[in-house]
Amino acid sequence: MKQTEHYGLNQWDLSDRIRMEDFNADNAKLAAQLARLQEDIFGLTYYIGQTALYFQLNDQQVQAQYPIASCIFHPKDQVITTGDVVVADNCATLTGQGAKGSVTFKRSPFLIQGIPDKGQEIRLWLHYSGGTVRPFFNDAEMETHGRFMDHTVTKRDLMCDTFSLKAPFAKTFSLRLDLDCGNSSQMVVYDAVLAQL
User: Fold this and answer.
1) Which residue has the higher pLDDT, 71 or 128?
2) Which of 111, 122, 171, 195 has the maximal Cβ count within 10 Å?
3) pTM over 0.85
């Protein structure tokens, strides 16, 4: 029996014996390739979406009413990690029950010329799954402000935790995220968006 060049799917001739096993084998190959393709598309969509978010948010600082900064583990983001935190594929990952670590962004400048320095509150929107996160803005711990299911995240629906901190306007900042897997086997931080309100 002949097979296709790609994926080795069966190609019957009139003289070939038709067997259920051949159909099942072909279906299994097709299902595996479709699943891989779907994962690749999700990954590509997520990368494009997060890259667009990075540039859009930072470009909007010039027109925005409030200064905004995005931290999404883009190659331009310089990060410092501790513990077993790994930064790769535009995410920060911590693996292992009870594992702890941190990731720190340092950004300068936070202020783009033309935006008034009127902010008195820092607001953080954070997408992550598993474990817990404690954020610190310029070494001051931020307070939990709220939580909602965010359907705009391109890879999957995620809970978005929001945090706030009463603080004077800052032209530069550091954002440290202390991660704790707790009972989870793994936690992933996908992005963080800061605004001065």
Assistant:
1) 128
2) 122
3) no
